């Protein structure tokens, strides 16, 4: 062995008890420029905390249960002020037993944090790491023992990636597995060898056992850092694991011949030592990409302009048919899905996003969601260094609810010039300005004479806090990312900053306290109301406001240049007033920043359907972008997935006409008549499809059966082989006999589409112009 120093990026983390039970062993696999590295840290102890005053009882109970533990006094206390004692265990099993033995009589703190996570967290290691120790070259990797680790925030890995996709029948019996990437282009197919002229390799397998054995050899040989796919954890790997168990096999797909393990619960947790498995759907959602459907077919079409090779209504039936009668076609389909996933990851920079998210939060590459876990990773080590341990859920003992964001009543109507001013990152700015922070709340309550007043009796320390400093760091880093053209880093920081309030307002977070969340939202209410008052004092009309945005109506005779000047003037005046006000009232620096964001010309704010009062979170406006007119819809039918393409196109054409300077009401009537005529002529048949996700399994719909489920059950009655799963998007239409699965032969109920899709859109606009809704039906329909 030789002593060496390496830098790398953590791909996987594990912990297990040593054979002699003298301590936990932690295992971290790294991607590095020297190849895969296995890092072993031995003789570790898992820990949780209890109140020092409960130590005698804990000693008695654990001694009686013969659970080996060591107690250590620590200079840390609970938020209530009581001093705490650390309880150390040589293995996870002892910690779990002790927790079960004590928790009915003793409050246990931080007993749910895995030591493999805590070890990294307390060292501020977020992906990139320096490691030193005794290095030994093994078959395909370097193993480092007696390892010491240190954060390396500047290391960015070059990950070797492989795309995996399986095909199987409805019961999960395997047909084939596609593998594309990192120099590999292959489909493993069960069946007799067939001659083919494909440009990729088909490796024919005798049966499922042979297929799984070959899959293991291919992954071991290819040795990717990352395996990607579409729903790859919940479906592909779960099916592979289930089939291996059923056939008596162990899938050693990890590095160093380590097995794949899958645990199910609230979510499916996959462990593949030495590799990360990243799901495309989860990564898209976490990067805040929004699509009406996250199916691979829809995303590949929307992002790449490419379609899957099987587009049949019942894809499973076609897959089964191809496996039985056209295996070459199935192989091409299987491979194409792998290729599409790879191209989506590259096109949308999903690898870059996953890496920078880990570098910011310390979460595993594959860990998606996890806002609460990310917050804990960032905040807990800072809290410990301030002498506190984390509270448990509900330790605050308060039961009131904090309100949501402030939404003003709107003034409906058609406007020529509307300016929108947005507070930049309002909630993080409030937290930074008013020192809102879990530790700050405790320290503020302990020293009220110098604290900053919040709401609901909250007081915040001016000096003892962490979130304001963290937000300052994130704000600067994001600006640097923008300046240096790092869009994925900028986006990841934006998501984290926006999640800070959500985490503190979530009852699933150990740091939740309604005094924290209400001090953020109620301060937001005050800021919005005061800003409205100041703008109106300047002589302008505020017609709407929502959370951090204010909509201002200005003179209809002004041109775009004049409107922009007003928007910028108002922006500077409001920012100056907030700076002065906060300095005067609180002796604090204001980090509130309102920006003049948009000039809409024209702008339409509708009423609530069937009422005269203005709606909320629904409007449409026109902007000038690159010398071209562009419509912006918010909450309208055009951007909602529960409205058909027919209704969306109809609404868009109406607004284009309404916003035209030469507009006459007869033009709207002509559009309505034209759409009605074309509808009855069948010209919109392919645009009358509704798309709705199955929220639960088909058998779970018993009492309330929505239209898309009615359509599926009706179709399945005549097609027993038709299979759908929870989460699947159902395409259906309204036919004469009710909701039906869409096909080319549906007899469509055109009057119903007029009633439900055309009339509401037309009425919304025409009634705002003084045309009574009932006259529309009688004269046009």
UniProtKB/TrEMBL annotation:
Domain DNA-directed DNA polymerase family B exonuclease: 195-299
Catalytic activity: DNA(n) + a 2'-deoxyribonucleoside 5'-triphosphate = DNA(n+1) + diphosphate
Listed EC numbers: 2.7.7.7
Residue ranges of domain DNA-directed DNA polymerase family B multifunctional in the record: 379-747
Ribosomal protein among keywords: no
Keywords associated with the record: DNA replication, DNA-binding, DNA-directed DNA polymerase, Nucleotidyltransferase, Transferase
GO biological process, alphabetically ordered: DNA replication proofreading; SOS response
Transmembrane spans: none
Enzyme class, broadest EC rank: transferase
Superkingdom to which the source organism belongs: Bacteria
GO molecular function, one term: 3'-5'-DNA exonuclease activity
UniProt xrefs under PANTHER family: DNA POLYMERASE CATALYTIC SUBUNIT, DNA POLYMERASE DELTA CATALYTIC SUBUNIT
Family label: Belongs to the DNA polymerase type-B family.
Name of the molecule in the record: DNA polymerase
Gene name for this UniProt entry: polB
